[in-house]
Amino acid sequence: MPPVEPMLAKAAPDIPPGIQYEAKWDGFRAVVFRDGAEIELGSRSGKPLTRYFPELVEALRTELPPRCVLDGEIVIAREGQLDFDALLERIHPADSRVRHLAEVTPASFVAFDLLALGDESLMSVPQRDRRDALETALRKAADPVFTAPVTDDLDVARAWFEQYEGAGLDGIVAKPPGMPYLPGRRVMVKTKHERTADCVVAGLRPHKSGPVVGSLLLGLYDAEGRLQHVGVCASFPMHRRQALMEELAPLRMESVAGHPWEEWTSQEAQAAGRLPGGPSRWTGKKDLSWVPLRPERVLEVAYDHIQGDRFRHTAQFRRWRPDREPASCTYAQLEEPVRYNLSEVLGA
Question: Among 261, 159, 178, which Cα is nearest to 219's?
Fold first, then answer.
């Protein structure tokens, strides 16, 4: 019965040898429950996703066994590439908007584990046997329900790591074949792409605990010379948060007037793009607590994946770059993976 916490993965710099490998999907993790006509989609946090994907509910009633629990990923593809922004658009309070998007950007479900089938729980069954049962249970399933590719060949996994990024996937997940399903435990291993970029630090957000740095707001210059927000750098130890607040104090501006991002305060700009300070798609709450900084310092960060024109995940602090001029920090430095069609990954 829902909710069930999905099993998680810990990060590793290299793909470990001697176990089972799958691609790491860039979507919404979801545990799917089916009991006859009843379908429930549970998120990683346990919150229901069911109302946001009505087209998947109908497809899962058709393509899944009558009673089962599956672990997998909800994804949306556009032009053969995964599109995470299209998923974010689904988290909308208006049912009419959700149903419109379900028609124009339909979602798919990629299954990679089977937790229950009929009256039997499979959570204590070894990974290799759950995988066999998953393939058997979904052998007749059709688009938009897929079974994630799997291999036990390390060379194949390394090839997937390089190729699949071009379809929007962001790494490899390795699973010990004898492992049971352990909800909420970080017992799998994930290896993700990591690259570096030099970015302009143009603002900060205070930490929720007090007047120390919570995150740094990063920018890159586009071809027209405009400083675009590309993401945030965060996850500092507390002593570093305090030191950063003191270090950046000379760059603090009294107001946003004259700042490249001063339009963030307007409702029109918030409606036009995903900007810090805008309403969260998950909570609907608005947080305007950012501090503008003069865009004069350059920071090297590590990032794993680009979604559109922004970092898909939080970037990691590497070092200050006093040798770089802010104007030299452009999108041209970002690596573009060779495109790879998602249909080649899913065999459809």
Answer: 261
